[in-house]
Amino acid sequence: MTDKVLGVILGGGQGSRLAPLTQTRSKPAVPIAGKYRLVDIPISNCLNSGIHRMFVLTQFNSASLNKHIKNTYHFSHFSLAFVDILAAEQTPENPTWFQGTADAVRQTMHHLLNHDFEYVLILSGDQLYQMDFKEMVQAHIDSGVQVTLATIPVNAKDAPDFGILKANEQNIITSFIEKPKTNLGDWISDTGPEMHAEGRDYLASMGIYIFNKDLLIKIFAENEDEKDFGKEIIPRMLTEYDVLSYQYDGYWTDIGNISSFFEANLGLTDDIPKFNLFDSSHSIFTRARMLPPSKILGTTLDKTIIAEGCILQAKCIKHAVIGIRSRIGVGTHIESCYIMGSDKYQTLIEIEKEKGTKPLIGIGDNCKIVNAIIDKNSRIGDNVTIIGGAHLPDGDHALYTVKDGIVVVKKGAIIPDGTVI
Question: Which end of the chain is more exposed for a tag (fewer CB within 10 A), N or C?
Answer without folding.
Answer: N
